[in-house]
Amino acid sequence: MKKVTKAIIPAAGYGTRFLPATKATPKEMLPIVDVPTIQYIVEECVNSGITDICIILGRNKECIPNHFDRNVEVEYALAKSGKNKVIEKMNELTEKVNIVYVRQHEMLGTGKAIELCKSFVKDEPFAVLFGDDVIYNPEYPVTKQLMDAYENTGTTIVGVQMQPREECPKYGVVIPGKEKGKYTEIKGFIEKPKLEELPSQLTSLGRFILTPEIFEYIKQTPAAPNGEVYMPTSIHYMSKDMPVYAYTFDGRRYDIGDKLGFVEANIEYALRNDELKEGLKKYLTELVKKL
């Protein structure tokens, strides 16, 4: 069984929920405290043992590859000021992982986005991490949890958590089969079901390990009424022919595609920052008294 060493990060979306901030700045570059959102995703890959990443870009997202490239001018200015540790921090990721980029010319859904990376992953299993989901677990990164689950099963793994019933229609929801510990057999997968038609509350939260067979199922997946091909729908068809499992991962998940989720992430990451936490705690304590 081949090991998972590659990951795909779709980052081609328009980010309309964050307009006007995303009119000229990709939502993936909006910072959580002082780190762009997409960097947390790349760091999760690196900390999980991923060695090669393909980031899918849309138009006007050149600042993403620029962010992960070296900036000689800035490094020179920092070196003159003796800030060598800052330079090391800036270049830390570039020395640990290879990153390539592909352009998605039309927004045709997550399935068609993943299909663009077929030549990158070849015949190997691979991880997919959606940038709208930042998941905090420094001891055991979620992608590593799913990689370990894949090594136990040899099958496609979907990262899931239980969500409140009213939140489930926002996500892909698992039709569950047999359960054993953190593993649930996937009997089907419904993208954004109606509340009255929920098969479970096990929802997909932006982390996957996929086997290369997924590309054949993407080809066979009909487009939704909006013209998009959803990757969860392709997994649904795959589950009819071969074993597919959901894995309930451990970690604090933030919905960065939602404004409130984005604010929550900034507050909680700031509370983990040694430079900010004491001042922020004091501010929040005083603020709560006024509410």
Short description:
Helices cover 34% and strands 25% of the residues. The protein has helices spanning 37-48, 63-67, 72-80, 84-90, 110-115, 118-121, 142-153, 214-220, 231-239, 259-271, 277-290; strands at residues 6-11, 31-32, 35-36, 52-57, 98-103, 126-129, 133-136, 156-162, 172-180, 183-191, 202-210, 244-248, 252-255.
What features would you highlight for this structure?
nine-stranded mixed beta sheet; 291 residues; 11 helices; two-stranded antiparallel ribbon; alpha/beta
Model description:
This protein is an alpha/beta fold and 291 residues long. Helix content is 34%, strand content 25%. The protein contains eleven helices and 13 strands. The protein has helices at 37-48, 63-67, 72-80, 84-90, 110-115, 118-121, 142-153, 214-220, 231-239, 259-271, 277-290; strands at 6-11, 31-32, 35-36, 52-57, 98-103, 126-129, 133-136, 156-162, 172-180, 183-191, 202-210, 244-248, 252-255. A nine-stranded mixed β-sheet has the order 5-4-1-6-11-8-12-10-9. Strands 2-3 form a two-stranded antiparallel sheet. The chain has a two-stranded antiparallel sheet with strand order 7-13. β2 (31-32) and β3 form a beta hairpin. α8 (214-220) packs across α9. The longest helix has 14 residues, at 277-290. The chain is globular. The mean pLDDT is 89.
